[in-house]
Amino acid sequence: MRRMLYVAICMVVTVAGFAVTSDAPAADSSGTPRAPGRGVSLVRQPVEFTVMNTQEGNAARKLVGYRYDPFCQSKTAVLLLHGLSYTKEAWDFPGYSVAQEIAKAGYTVLAYDRLGYGESKLENGYMVTHEAMAGQANQVIKQLRDQGFEHVVLGGHSAGAGATEFLAGTFGGVDAIMPLGWHHRPSNELGQDFFTGDTPRALQDDYEYFLGTPEHRAEMFFEPNADPAVVEADAKAAVPTPSGEILTINKQPSRFVTGRIDVPVFLQFGAKDRLFELQYARMHADEFRSSPSVTVDVVPLSGHTFMLTKEGLAGTERLVKWLRSRPEAPSCL
User: Fold this and answer.
1) Beta bridge partner(s), residue 109
2) Is the per-residue pLDDT at 156 higher than 60?
3) CA–CA separation, 52 vs 132, rounded Å?
């Protein structure tokens, strides 16, 4: 019987330490890096995946990312997809690292720049679609399975969450999903921005600045109570968005396949999200009619990029707790 859980917890957690170590881990006899021992800092390792881009006649493209391994040998990989204007660094922001918190819980965690973002270069931003990006993530998941991972959990934020749902409903191949900051009833404010600003800009150039200006992007993504230093750093890290994704995400392809998703789902929303308003969260949860379990978690006092807030730290704790509770995604701890 399907279970629905709705969580709204107000908790503030502080984090100490902003450094990320870069020393290479020791390798076993096969050359495979070993996870660091207990008491040793997590190590971030660079990774690359070669995928085929359907919009270029299946031309080979390189996706650049990183990987964190836990303090034990994990059989579960967690793959994280960023949203529009972001890169893989959204998951490893100093002091707010979602990737590191999941890895500490006994999972191998990977994140990469989706094609056309950051280090995953695409010369013509029109030569990719939202659906193609989901297909590329599916190729990455198959490669992770080939590497020996028995379980794969897919998570994403905003457009990355849309790709997560589209992949799970179209290709399957995942054991659980964690879509954050996404549903199928975008706010009127986002709709106006998108159709009067982002879409015209995308029609004029192959890359565009999502939401127009750093100032407007910041006010749409964060509440006034957010740390100003974090908001400033987030704005500086923003990158242009491939226009091919802008012109294909507007129909939200995930809406057509959500009902097919038959794995556990963890949805998380900012209570004051101006892009995907909380009032439609339960409606979105109801769309997962084939899922055995849907959990809706609310991060209080936070906007769209809630992961980078004090309240978001507690939200990440709840995400990790949910993940640890799922037999479909066993931790190695």
Assistant:
1) 68, 78
2) yes
3) 9
